[in-house]
Amino acid sequence: MKRYRTVIATIIALTFYTITDILIWQRIFETNNMTEYADVYHTGWFVTLAGYAVMGTILLWGSWKDCLYFVTSLFIAAFSGLEDILYYALDRKPMPESLPWLDGNPMIYATTREGVILSVVFWLTALAILYFYLYWWRSNEIQPVSQ
Question: What is the tens place of the pLDDT at every residue in 86-98?
């Protein structure tokens, strides 16, 4: 279980981060036509993400690999389009054909539904490779037998 704690911590942080996004953006800002405050909202959104990253790093302190992987995977998950996919899945709404607010994001292949999904697959593959490199590669080497 210890080997997967960074993945589990990332999933938990991203899930609660996304639920907060749904509750604040959709239920407050969109419902009350306050979209002109989007810049202030996005600043708060980023501060919240940074708070999750700091909290996770403190809780995982003592293992540089865990801290590195948690922070990296949390930010990649939040900015790669995964948070957007999770947003619609948790809200039980279909993902729109176009997500134009992601247009300036360099981590997103295209702002279409397929482009966002393709970006998420790419970045999750990169995270899987990083995880393999940090936790599995060379950790399963044959240990010498002591006599």
Answer: 999 999 999 999 9
145 part of a folded domain: no
Hunting for tokens 């979209």 — which residue is that?
35
Tokens read off for 51: 């708070």
Give the whole-angstrom CA distance, residue 91 versus residue 107. 23
**What's the domain range around 70?**
2-136
Q: Are 17 and 51 spatial neighbours (Cβ–Cβ below 8 Å)?
A: no
Whether residue 142 lies inside any domain: the answer is: no
- Does the pLDDT value for residue 147 go beyond 90? no
How high is the mean pLDDT of the chain? 91
If one counts the domains in the chain, the total is 1
Tell me, yes or no, whether 146 lies in a domain. Answer: no
Specify whether the backbone of 105 is left (phi greater than 0), alpha (psi in -120 to 50) or beta.
beta
Phi, psi of 91 (to 5 degrees): -85, -5
Q: How many CB atoms lie within 10 A of CB 94?
A: 9
Is the confidence at residue 145, as pLDDT, over 80?
Answer: no
